[in-house]
Amino acid sequence: MCGIAGIFDPSIGSHNLLTAHIEKMTSRLSHRGPDDTGFHIDRHLALGHQRLSIIDLTTGHQPIFNEAKDKCIIFNGEIYNYRELKAELLTSGYSFSTNSDTETILHAYEEWGVECLSRLTGMFAFCIWDQRAETLFLARDRLGEKPLFYTHQGHRFLFASEMKSLLVDSRLDRTIDEEALASYFLFSYIPAPLTIYKNIRKLPPGHYALFRKSELTINQYWDVAFTPNRKRKEKDCIRDFMDLLSGSVQGQLISDVPLGAFLSGGIDSSTVVALMSQKSEEATKTFTIGFRCNVEGYEDERRYARLVAERYRTNHNEYVVIPNADGLIAKIVEAFDEPFADDSTIPSYFVCQLARKNVTVALSGLGGDEAFAGYSRYVGYQLSHIYNMLPTVLREKVMKRLVEPVPEGFLGAYKVNHLKRFVRSAALENAQRYVGFVSKMPDRYLFSFFSPTRGRYMEAIEAARSRFLKYLESAQADEPLNRVFYCDIKTYLPDDILTCTDRLSMHHSLEVRVPFLDHKLIEYSATIPPEMKLKLLQHKHLLKKAVADLLPRPVLQHRKQGFVGPTELWLKGELRAFTLEKLSEKNLSKHGLFDHQTITNILEDHYGDKESNDTLIWALLIFQTWFDQYMN
Fold first, then answer.
1. How far apart (Å, rounded) are the C-alpha atoms in residues 202 and 148?
2. Which residue of 141, 167, 527, 599 is 20 to 30 Å from 533, comparing CA positions?
3. pTM value surpassing 0.90
4. What are the catalytic residues?
5. Do 550 and 274 meet the contact criterion of CB atoms below 8 Å apart?
6. In this structure, are residues 81 and 120 in contact, taking their beta carbons and an 8 Å threshold?
7. Which residues, at least 6 apart from 239, have a Cβ–Cβ distance to it below 8 Å?
8. Where do the domains of the chain lie, and which CATH numbers do they carry?
9. CA 297, CA 98: separation in Å to the nearest integer?
10. What is the tens place of the pLDDT at every residue in 5-23?
């Protein structure tokens, strides 16, 4: 795992200035690769690389060149099938000066051009400079495990693994992108290709870019089609996908440095640990986070993680999170360079910190929810079809009026909040309904949230919704539930879950691998009928059945908690004073983006138990911290 950066800028006529610029850009990525630094500078081009040594510790220095010295590569990620590719390329006459997967990509490009992407299995973001063609070739892996940002301004083109590297350029315009900001408050993340800045973009997952003679073209090379095969029996699906998952875990154990696993206590991470333990001669090192809290209906999953650790005799490590606003939120913001408000950031920060003290690589169970219908919102989406059979007057005049006044916490945890979100959106058209289910901001705040004097935010809100709806409407899937799965694979998975994992793991110089996201497994999962994944409103039906003999029964049967902390409790307790000060009228007036009365209503409704606004308040806290650090 590494950090990469590059510049193509004919306006920098001095070799020394170009060198200084790429050195500054690359140094901002040192946390992604503290083991080695490398550069290539050629006329108007400069490439930089920070290396976290995982494979081929002695000869993997980058950039790596081909024999003719007319092509070179900088690479971030891991290619799990590089040995098979290397063997094929050797038979074609290529010679190798290293034992790294990086050199394999370069020779694969020489042999197959951009079509080499279809042959790579792994997570990656890389840039190849083809001097003969005077072309930069950049690519990002299929599911978006590894990031790649760029800015293109006339003849200038800059790219990097993180925006902080691009932001060292004082000429870069930092104007806020209004649609990106609207998306952030709707979904808690900013979807690709947007970033918070109008002049910086993300290369989308499954895409590659070619920059030649000041022209930038972006093309998609991979997509997933949901084509259910109902001729297969359930047992056949279980056998086939477990073979794929087992093979993925096996392939991701390649490492020349210590390796472990996150163990949340949920089914996905527990399955990965079980398969790792079966394939490893040494005890697997596992890492679990707990939370200091005492609230009805809430429990962390440490006791379930311990059951798995005991069964497989892992070297188990635990850490209890106690939130400390002083400095922690600022560190989280610095890891992302733009507002990012997933409520798993605090536990993710600490589990990565804990793991890095013991290993350099950790496997994760991420991706199982998207592949096998693990989210409660999928159950709600199915239930909504039944709910809509009720008479309109009963839904609109009775149910809504009954549910809206119920105080939050009345049924414990988030049950009332989920019920309110359901009845508010269930009657909408299919695509709009799902937007309502995943949106973090109720309409009661949305249309007065932004200050009417600051920008075209009503148009931005509609644009943000339209961008999200596009994935539901253009999905390669005929059935409504498969459209939802496709949408999450294209939005929530890369732009939220994997973004969180990459930034916070690399903030601690830790590589995280995700076996559930082997692209062949995802493609196979898309052929499994949705009713096998979500059967009788039980999410992960097929996966639970497949791993029944691998995991303790309590792990299979307990209520899904998710890898999140008790944010609502923290905001009402340890973080309350910090929250009220950070979101005061004085602080918000620094930018004047929000309507102060609406913000007051959001806080009062939350602290008065009228509406659980913890995710929205957390988003405001993160935004204000980001603004203070990056825009003030």
1. 6
2. 141
3. yes
4. 2
5. yes
6. yes
7. none
8. 2-220 (3.60.20.10), 234-323+343-373+503-557 (3.40.50.620), 381-486+567-630 (no CATH)
9. 54
10. 999 999 887 889 999 999 9
